[in-house]
Amino acid sequence: MILPGSTLLVFNDSQELLLQHRSDTKEWGLPGGNMEPGESLEQTARRELLEETGLQAEELQFRNLLSGDEFYFKYPNGDEVYNVIGVYQAINTYGELVMEDGESLALGYFPLNDLPKIMDYRARLIIEKTLL
């Protein structure tokens, strides 16, 4: 199945990247998710940012569009997908960092040179292809 969605790059004032410790895979990853019917990639990014982190952004800056074999993923429930991912950077975020959607075990900011060892490979690819 081809699955479009959006992922967000959120930095704090110290230029640390926000990561989400996911409850389904137990890995650290980037906030984001799948597109719902009728949404644009940017609308998906805004919704996922709020749902997964409690944050909103004054602006979303489009950074990348990624797809292909390296974005194949098999979920713990057995679903297999090829992701098409719009990558946005959240500019001037506001709100309180909270976990309310049940998808997160933790949220935290990390320096790009000291990311968690147990990390979703797609998140690493997104970071490498977009930021490094």
UniProtKB/TrEMBL annotation:
UniProt keyword annotation of Manganese present: no
Gene3D superfamilies recorded: Nucleoside Triphosphate Pyrophosphohydrolase
Cofactor: Mg(2+)
PROSITE patterns for the chain: NUDIX, NUDIX_BOX
Top-rank lineage group of the source organism: Bacteria
InterPro entries membership: Nudix_hydrolase (IPR020476), NUDIX_hydrolase-like_dom_sf (IPR015797), NUDIX_hydrolase_CS (IPR020084), NUDIX_hydrolase_dom (IPR000086)
One MF term in the entry's GO annotations: hydrolase activity
Family annotation (SUPFAM superfamilies): Nudix
All residue ranges annotated as the Nudix hydrolase domain in the record: 1-132
Membership in a protein family: Belongs to the Nudix hydrolase family.
Stated name of the protein: ADP-ribose pyrophosphatase YjhB, NUDIX family
Annotated source species: Thalassobacillus cyri
